[in-house]
């Protein structure tokens, strides 16, 4: 898969961007994770996931305790699919089109020294519903594995500095039972979960 498609190239030429784009591809884009990539990705408590099919585009926030995204090979990462709102927009799109984009951000204030404060991964995703995969991520219902085609950091120029972030109390963790989110008690959906609670009793 080419890093730039024809329409990207056309705009690079129109706005005199091809020379810089070529340098970024040569010097910044890579196809295997570095130790700096690992530090950012496996230290992240969240990332954004973009998925698409021929008739649906979706961008989703994915959060967890730092380390919930794991690098499992030279160019593969995996992350857990936790209990959610059951729309399955991201997973449904992945079933139709494996192409995904992941965006990791470090709001701690990046440096202009080549280290990553913003990491983008474009690649192909698959859903693993095996018990073995879920067991690697506490509280996971299933796991999404991504094989990276393009890994590329961006400079921190427009990333705001935001400190004091704490992991959500809803994130699964050993020895911790997350509380039930309030939305499950909303009038328009509470009967669904009430029936499930009775089944569990």
TrEMBL record:
Annotated Pyridoxamine 5'-phosphate oxidase N-terminal domain residues: 34-150
InterPro entries named in the record: Pyridox_Oxase_N, Split_barrel_FMN-bd
Superkingdom field: Bacteria
PANTHER family (alphabetical): FAD-BINDING, PUTATIVE (AFU_ORTHOLOGUE AFUA_6G07600)-RELATED
Name of the featured protein: Pyridoxamine 5'-phosphate oxidase N-terminal domain-containing protein
Organism annotation: Albimonas donghaensis
């Amino acid at each position: 898969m080419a890093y730039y498609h024809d329409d990207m190239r056309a705009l690079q030429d129109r706005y005199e961007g091809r020379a810089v784009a070529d340098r970024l591809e040569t010097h910044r884009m890579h196809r295997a994770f570095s130790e700096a990539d690992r530090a950012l990705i496996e230290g992240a408590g969240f990332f954004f996931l973009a998925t698409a099919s021929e008739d649906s585009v979706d961008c989703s926030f994915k959060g967890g305790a730092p380390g919930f995204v794991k690098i499992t090979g030279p160019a593969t990462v995996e992350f857990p699919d936790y209990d959610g709102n059951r729309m399955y927009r991201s997973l449904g799109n992945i079933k139709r089109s494996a192409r995904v984009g992941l965006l990791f951000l470090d709001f701690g204030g990046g440096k202009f020294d080549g280290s990553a404060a913003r990491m983008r991964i474009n690649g192909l995703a698959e859903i693993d519903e095996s018990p073995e995969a879920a067991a690697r991520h506490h509280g996971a219902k299933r796991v999404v594995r991504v094989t990276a085609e393009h890994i590329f950091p961006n400079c921190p120029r427009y990333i705001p500095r935001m400190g004091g972030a704490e992991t959500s109390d809803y994130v699964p963790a050993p020895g911790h039972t997350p509380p039930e989110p309030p939305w499950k008690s909303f009038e328009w959906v509470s009967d669904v979960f009430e029936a499930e609670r009775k089944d569990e009793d």
